[in-house]
Fold each of these.
Amino acid sequence: MKKIVVFSGQANPALAGNICKSLKVAPGNINSMRFSDGEVRVEVGENVRGKDVFVIQPTCPPVNENLMELLVMLDALRRASASRITAVMPYFGYARQDRKDQPRVPITAKLVANILTSAGADRILTLDLHAGQIQGFFDIPLDHLYAINAFVAYFKRIKMNDLVVVSPDVGGIKMARSYAKRFHAGLAIVDKRRNSPESIDVMHILGEVKGKNVIMVDDIIATGSSIVEAAKALKRAGAKKIFAAITHGILSGNAVSKVNKSEIDSLVITDSIPLVKDKRSKKIKVISVGSLFAEAIKRIHFEKSISVLFDGIGR
C-alpha cells in the first residue's frame, strides 16, 4: 500500500475522504487553484515518481469545470512520472450523448474518452455508466462498478414486504431485473414516451403493482420529471409506498422541489455526486459507495480481479 497515492479534485472531496479512510491511506497533497481569468492551475505537492496514482473526480456539475480540472491533474501527474494513473470517476459526465440519434450531433462520450486518454489516464474506474457500450469507447482498461449491492443492503435493512421492482423506462429493464432477482421480487416497467429531453408523457404500466411496495431503479436523476411522472402513474395503478433507488443524484434545476411534491416516499441516491446543502430534503437519503471504490482500488493495485465485487449481478 506504500505505493498507492490517492488524490482528489474539488468535485467530491467528501467521497475521496471516505475512500482514503477505507484504504487507511492519507489523501495525496495536490493544490488546485484558478488564475484570475478562471484557468485551472494544479501543483502536485509530493513525489509520485513510480507510484500507483488514483485521481478521484466525478464530472458532475459544474461539469466542464470539473472535467477540465481532472484533465489538468492527469497531465500534471503524467509529467511527474507516476507509474500508473487511474482516473476514478464515480460519475461519468457526457454519458447521455453516446450515439448519433439525430443528424449532425456529436458523440461526446467518445470525445471525453479520447481526451482522458490523451491527458494521461492509464485506466478508468467508474460506477453505473449510463450506457454500457461506453466501455468500448476507451482504448485503455475500464473497470465498471455497480451500486446494486449498496442499495440492496439498504433496502433489506428496511425489511419491506410485497415488493416489486420497477424500471422507469424500457432501457432500464436489465438493471431492474438484477434488482428483482436480488430481492426475489416482481418486475414492472413504465412505458413512456419522451416529448423532449426534459419532459415525458407516461403511457401505462407493464406488470402488476396494485397493493405493492415499489422500488424504482435508475442510474441518473437530473430534472426529476421522468421519475416523478412514473411515480404518479404507479400511484394511479394502486401502488402503496414508492421508493426510488438512483445511483447519480444530479438533481438539476427544481428537481428537489418536484421530488418533495411527488408521490415518491423516499429517494435513495449514492454519494457519487455530492448533495449540496440547498438540495437536501427529508425525502432524500444518501448512501456511500466509498468502501466499494476503496476495495476496487486495492484490487487494482495488487493486480487482483474486481469481478468478485459484482459477481451474480447479471446486468
Amino acid sequence: MSLGFGFALLALGALSTACTSERESSPVSKPKATETLASTQPMNLVMIGLDTLRADHVGLYGYERPTTPNLDRFAEASVVFERAYSQASSTRPSHQSMFQSRPPSAAAANYLALAEVLLENGFRTAAFTGGGNISSRLGFARGFERYEERDTGLAGTLPMAAAWLREHRDERFFLFLHTYDIHLPYDPPEPYASMFSENYEGVVTGPKTRSLLRRVRELDGFEGKSFDLETNDRERVVALYDGGIRYADNQLAHLFRLAEELDLYRDTVFVFFSDHGEEFWDHGTTIHSHSLYQEQLHVPLILRTPKRDSKRIADRVPLMDLSPTLLELLALPVPSAFEGESLVGLIDGSDTGDRIAIAEQRALKSWFEYPWKFIRSTDTGRVELYDLEKDPLEQNNVADTHPDIAITLSDRLNARLAEGSGDAVPELEPGIVDPEHLERLRALGYIE
C-alpha cells in the first residue's frame, strides 16, 4: 500500500485448597438442563476472564489439542458466540472497552463501568484478579467492594472467591475472576509444561520464554536486530501456551463443582471471555498488542443463563456489546454512556446478522464489516484492506485494488470514533511509577 494513498485516506476522514493441586482434576459434570430453569429470573453474575486466550486454541472452537475439556463440557449448556471480537489487542484497553461499553479511545478510568452499575443496583461486588494491566491503580476497582490482586493465578484466587461466594450466596452478587495463567511467560507447572511437547530438547523453557519472545519482537534493546526461533522451538512455544490453557481449564473444574454445590446455575449468569488473543508467527512475529489481525482479536465468548437454552451463534459480534447484554439479562437499565448494543436479540433469535466491530491499539484503527476488514495507522498513514471471505488469514492487502471500499470504510471509521479518531491507545497507561505495579508488569512481560 503506498504511503501517499494512506495519507489521502486520512485526509478523507479513526474453592478449596484442592485448587492448588497440579494433578488433573476429574472432568466436570454437565450442568443441569436449562429446561428446569426456564422460569427463573437470573439474579447474579459471575464473569471469568481468561487473559490472552485466542479462540482457535479452544476445543469447542475446533482446536485439535485437548486444551479445554472442562470448558467444553460447560459450553454444552451455554450460548457460544463463535465469532466474538475484542476492541483492542492488549489487556488494559480491551477490559476498559468491555466494562465501559465504549471504543478504547473513548474509554477512560473515570467512565461509568459495569461494576458501578451493579453496585448502585444493590449487588454485592468482588473481583479476584491478576492485577497488572487491570490493577486497581488504573481504576479497575471502581464499583467493587472488594478487589484482590494476586500473582498466584486461579489456584490462589479461586479459594478466596469460593469463600466470598459462600458468604454472599443469599444476596444478589457480582463476582469477577481474572487470570494470567495463559499469558506470557507460558510457564505452567508440570505435567502441563510437557503435556504437548513431551520429548522437546531446546532453549525454550518457561522461565526463558518471555525474554526470547521479546527478542523476537525486537524489544529490550534488540530493535532492528533480526532474531527468530527454529521450527521445533516455535512448536515448543505454542505447546507451552497450550499447556497453560489446559492448566487454567483444570482449575476451572473446581469452580464448576462449586457452582453445583451452591446451586448457582439456578439463578446466576456465567460468562467466560478473553480480552485478546496471541500471535504465533501468523504475521511474522509473536505475543500481542502490536496488530489488529484476527489472531489477536478473535476471542472466546461463552454465556450461560438460566433463562436461555444452549445454542451456537455464528454472527460476528464485538466484545463491547457484552455489558449491555448482561444488564438486560439481569433486568437492569443500560446507562446512556454505554455505546454497545445488547446481544439478547441474537440469543433469543429475534435478531440476526453480523454486528460491525471496531478495534484500536497504539496508532492502529480498524473497521470490521464482514467480509471487509480495514486497518489504518494514524502514525504512518498505511492502509490495509482484507477480504476475509477469500482471505481469512489476512495475508493479501487489497486496498490498492479496492480503493473505493477502503475510502468508504475509512469514512465510517472516522464517523464512529468522532473526536477520538486520532487518539493513540497505548498498551500501558502512561506515568506508572509505583514499584510494586511496575514489577508485576515486568513479570508479565510488558516491560523489561
